[in-house]
Write a structure and sequence with these properties.
The protein has 473 residues and is α+β, with helices and mostly antiparallel strands. The chain is built from 18 helices and 13 strands. The strands form 4 sheets. It has a 6-stranded mixed sheet with strand order 7-6-10-9-8-11. Helix 1 packs across helix 5 and helix 12 crosses helix 14. 34% of the residues are buried.
Length: 473
């Protein structure tokens, strides 16, 4: 029953990730649209022959995808139970796993209820402090709902890839002079002019579009790759809006704020697809073995833009290495995260200090590599590097961030960064966790909190390696 419960949602997300209607997918599978609709709503089971046809037709390992969904829900529930304000200390990890297996829909509902609880708690705290709150109609935190939107679709949107490729054909773009082509297209097709404005005229903005005068203003503080990206972003809002709004409408997001965040994310996705066309970028990435610095020079983009594009290369029949991507600030806050690799991010808390994305702050500008193993045994090869955002002048502070990308260890040989590692023995593996509350490693010298599901052992006569000692049983 557990697999049946997960299968309908899984197939629906597979269909949506391919940009297909129920009728189109049903035709490819040789079944009726009404039967597919029943399958997606878990009202009909899937035969073995149909399951095999799904895997062959859409080039996807359905079992692996199902397991990834289960793990994501399991980690999410365990994080909820790690919230000490709930007092839920008696639920063992095995019980959480059983809940997810028996009723994934209920597990997802628990996650949504917890989000609503956190939102209400934050609004109440804001009222006590006399701060403006988000109101009482919010169901989910918009940024978390937006992140789930992209995670559920493995950060790949075929309709936007098609729209970006159509722009290259219609505008007759040339990679050697991409900005000129984008500016001329805006002028010819949308009657929009592009102007570079002084910093003081932008009032702190880096990009501003004025609908009445049909002017796109770019700050002089933008580096050229960032300026090109912002022009392509505006083309997305003006030319790819129908495709973007269809994706948003299908998602049935809970708040206008969530819709706006997703719209921005999808417009950014389109911009990346324009600057780095899928086929050419994938071919180049494989040729240089995913050397990010080489890709930035070849396509005239920033390090972050190239890494972000690498995390989207999941086209049916032409896939790249599935990467996760994460961006953090110096305080450890995650401001961006995507995963096509099965890496599990903490939803509601911090991440592991052993992760190389945090260590990269100690070596600014240099790429750090790491083989990291999570508690469930999954192992990833990752790279991380700091980023410095453009300063707005001498008196403005510089923004220092760290960006990390990684893939399952099975793909590591495809990366130039793995040269020199013995990938058979994995002597250099670093044991990391999703977060201290969920990590059961007893010998971690960087533990900030005791794990949720084990009894804390306090001995004033003994100092151990970890700040917290605990009993495993």
């Amino acid at each position: 029953m557990a697999k049946k419960a997960l299968l309908g949602n899984k197939i629906r997300r597979l269909r949506q990730s391919r940009g297909l209607t129920q009728s189109q997918m049903a035709e490819q599978l040789g079944i009726s649209a009404s039967y597919l609709n029943l399958i997606e709503h878990d009202e009909r089971s899937v035969t073995v022959s149909l399951l095999l046809k799904l895997g062959k037709t859409f080039d996807v390992d359905l079992q692996q995808l199902s397991d990834d969904i289960e793990r994501r829900l399991e980690f999410g529930l365990r994080e909820i139970l790690a919230d000490t304000t709930l007092g839920a200390t008696g639920v063992a990890p095995e019980e959480v796993r059983d809940i997810v297996a028996a009723s994934p829909a209920a597990a997802k509902t628990f996650l949504e209820l917890y989000r609503a609880y956190r939102t209400a708690r934050e609004d109440a705290q804001a009222m006590v402090l006399g701060l403006p709150s988000g109101g009482t109609r919010r169901i989910a935190l918009p940024n978390e709902e937006a992140r789930d939107f992209f995670a559920d679709r493995v950060n790949h949107f075929p309709t936007l890839e098609d729209a970006a490729e159509a722009l290259w054909r219609d505008a007759k773009l040339d990679r050697q002079d991409l900005r000129r082509g984008l500016v001329e297209y805006l002028s010819r097709a949308r009657a929009v002019s592009v102007e570079v404005a002084p910093r003081e005229a932008m009032a702190g903005a880096l990009r501003r579009y004025e609908p009445k005068s049909r002017r796109l203003l770019l700050s002089e503080m933008l580096a050229r790759p960032s300026g090109n990206f912002q022009i392509a972003y505006q083309i997305a809002l003006l030319g790819a809006r129908p495709a973007i709004d269809r994706l948003i409408g299908e998602a049935k997001l809970s708040t206008p704020e969530s819709e706006t965040l997703v719209r921005v994310g999808l417009a950014n996705y389109f911009a990346g697809a324009v600057l780095m066309p899928y086929a050419g970028f994938l071919e180049a990435a494989k040729a240089v073995r995913y050397d990010v610095d080489l890709l930035t020079h070849r396509f005239g983009v920033s390090f972050e833009q190239a890494c972000h594009r690498l995390s989207t290369l999941q086209r049916h029949g032409a896939k790249g290495v599935p990467f996760y991507l994460v961006r953090v600030d110096i305080a450890g806050n995650l401001s961006k995260r995507f995963s096509a690799s099965g890496f599990h991010f903490s939803r509601f808390g911090g991440s592991c200090p052993r992760w190389n994305v945090h260590e990269s702050f100690t070596t600014p500008g240099l790429i750090r590599t790491q083989i990291a193993r999570l508690p469930d045994g999954t192992t990833f090869f990752s790279i991380a590097r700091t980023l410095t955002k453009e300063s707005a002048g001498f008196k403005e502070p510089h923004t220092l961030l760290a960006l990390g990308i990684g893939c399952d260890i099975a793909h590591a040989r495809e990366l130039v960064y793995a040269d020199g590692y013995d990938l058979e023995r994995l002597d250099a593996v670093t044991e990391i966790g999703v977060g201290c509350r969920l990590c059961e490693r007893m010998d971690c010298r960087q533990r900030a909190f005791p794990p949720l599901h084990h009894r804390l052992v306090v001995d004033e006569q003994v100092k151990g390696a970890s700040a917290y000692n605990f009993a495993m049983k």
